[in-house]
Design brief:
Helix content is 72%, strand content 0%. By secondary structure, the protein is mainly α. Helix 1 runs antiparallel to helix 2. Keywords: Membrane, Transmembrane, Transmembrane helix.
Length: 102
């Protein structure tokens, strides 16, 4: 929290500073977990290093990801078309307000 405040207000980076601090914090967590897995006695028998076996289920993952991306695009386009059509109605403000309720 303190690093974000320093990056945003003291250094003056604004939103860029907040995103950089967030990215840095995730990298610190990732490196910490990696070091824990590699150096810990508890994980010594469970992780044998990097292998090509990690890519076995990748095709199925990409299929599901592509379907999800298409669904999100269709949902966004659907809502944009609704807003466009609502703009053609006689009472424009009421039509757009009713979209925010739905």
């Amino acid at each position: 929290m303190g690093m974000s405040w320093v990056a945003v207000y003291e250094i003056g980076l604004g939103l860029l500073g907040a995103s950089l601090v967030l990215s840095l914090s995730w990298w610190i967590i990732m490196i910490g977990q990696y070091v824990y897995i590699v150096k810990s006695k508890r994980c010594r028998r469970t992780w044998q290093g990097f292998t090509w076996e990690v890519f076995i289920g990748l095709y199925g993952f990409f299929k599901i990801s592509a379907a999800s991306a298409v669904t999100l695009c269709l949902e966004t386009w659907y809502f944009q078309i609704l807003v466009l059509l609502a703009g053609l109605l006689p009472n424009l403000e009421l039509a757009l307000d009713s979209l925010s309720i739905w």
